[in-house]
Design goal:
The chain is of the alpha/beta class and about 375 residues long. The chain folds into two domains: about 140 residues, Enolase-like, N-terminal domain (Enolase-like, domain 1), CATH 3.30.390; about 220 residues, Enolase-like C-terminal domain (TIM Barrel, Alpha-Beta Barrel), CATH 3.20.20.120. It has 13 helices and 14 strands. Strands 5, 6, 7, 8, 9, 10, 11, 12 and 13 form a nine-stranded mixed sheet that branches. Strand 5, helix 6 and strand 6 form a beta-alpha-beta unit. The mean pLDDT is about 95. This is Mandelate racemase/muconate lactonizing enzyme family protein. Pfam families: MR_MLE_C, MR_MLE_N.
Length: about 375
């Protein structure tokens, strides 16, 4: 039956943090999130999350973009399923995004809306999202510890080990000599069967990336993530891949089915990492995940944000299967932690999905209400 949306509720959140989260391109001084709830005329509902980490004022901007630039395209409009919402919104906002050059924000808002719509549809079907996508979906997904600052990695890896992780990803791209020296030392802290990966966050041009790879040739890194800008030429990516014994990873800043088809076809990536909150939602990322798996490549969804997007990423990985890992940021974030995704368990190396319909989220945690910076409730 067609789904006609009768209510849209969106809120932006921002939590102060005592320890900033630093990447090679900038520093996060607080933790933001944008959560959206869709409801149809029968009272069925679904939750989604919109990417809001960058720029600094991104959360409020994206929440307002949803309300003021897309509300008229949603309320009272019939959709057969989530993919139709995704396709229609992409087409109908094309000129609006072109007019202002804000392709990213529009794609991110549509991704969050698609996640909410998929949650709603799966909930109506009485299935978890993972089971809705794939009846043979896994019930658990393995996780790795992410967002680890290279200068604090000794401490954070020890904490990660206590939490049950066995794979860790540290942020590099600050000082090549210091980064490589610190990485070398970190291997002595790892136990048997543990893996260390590195994330440069697009820090280098090809010559610097080549120097890093040469300096780390003898280090058994699990992967090297975004050593080059996502829009670097294929020639540069190929040149680096040809000389790197370390698998290259990327995908969080690739958008569009065509963009991922090209990335898969090149064969330069050992690991591909679509981000469900940045582009595609389930309608875009589920076919991409299937294509990655069909090509024999490793699918590890990228994610760094609030609790809804993390849970959605887990359902996507559970449906895709394979040897992928769920990214779990180890830095404090009340907008993620309040969802109690592990249901009180201290072991974080594996996440067990809820069998509840949809994403298993019925309402937002009460304790995050104090962090709202913008909210709107649209209805007909």
């Amino acid at each position: 039956m067609p789904i006609t949306l009768s209510r849209i509720t969106v809120a932006a959140y921002r939590v102060p943090i005592s320890s900033p989260v630093a990447t090679s391109f900038g520093v996060m001084h607080n933790r933001p999130a944008v959560f959206v709830r869709l409801e149809d005329g029968d009272g069925a509902f679904g939750w989604g999350e919109v990417f809001a980490n960058w720029p600094a004022a991104g959360a409020e901007h994206r929440a307002r973009l949803l309300v003021e630039d897309m509300g008229d395209l949603l309320l009272g409009q019939p959709f057969d399923d989530a993919s139709e919402l995704f396709t229609q919104l992409t087409e109908k906002t094309h000129i609006r995004a072109l007019q202002c050059g804000e392709w990213g924000p529009f794609r991110q808002v549509i991704a969050g809306l698609d996640t909410a719509m998929t949650d709603l549809v799966a909930r109506r079907a009485g299935l978890s999202v993972a089971q809705y996508l794939n009846p043979q979906a896994e019930h658990t997904v393995p996780c790795y510890a992410s967002g680890i600052a290279i200068g604090q990695a000794d401490h954070q890896i020890t904490q990660g080990q206590e939490a049950g992780f066995s794979t860790y990803k540290v942020k590099v791209g600050f000082d090549l000599t210091q980064d490589t020296a610190l990485l070398t030392g970190l291997f002595s802290t790892l136990g048997a069967g543990e893996t260390l990966c590195a994330d440069a966050n697009q820090a280098w041009a090809l010559p610097e990336a080549e120097r890093f790879v040469a300096a780390c040739t003898d280090l058994p890194l699990g992967w090297l993530e975004e050593p080059l800008p996502a829009d670097a030429s294929l020639t540069h990516w190929r040149a680096l891949a040809d000389q790197s014994p370390i698998p290259l990873a990327g995908g969080e800043n690739i958008t569009g089915t065509g963009g991922f088809a090209d990335a898969i076809a090149t064969g330069v990536f050992g690991v591909l990492q679509p981000d469900i909150a940045k582009w595609g939602g389930f309608s875009g990322c589920w076919p991409v995940a299937q294509a990655i798996r069909a090509a024999g490549q490793r699918y590890c969804p990228h994610y760094l944000g609030g609790g809804i997007g993390l849970i959605a990423s887990a359902h996507l990985l559970a449906a895709a299967g394979g040897d992928g890992l769920l990214e779990v940021d180890v830095n404090p974030n009340p907008l993620r932690d309040a969802f109690d995704t592990w249901q009180g368990a201290t072991h974080r190396g594996t996440l067990t999905l809820s069998d509840a319909p949809g994403l298993g989220i019925t309402h937002l945690p009460d304790e995050i209400a104090e962090f709202v910076t913008y909210s709107r409730d649209l209805h007909i």
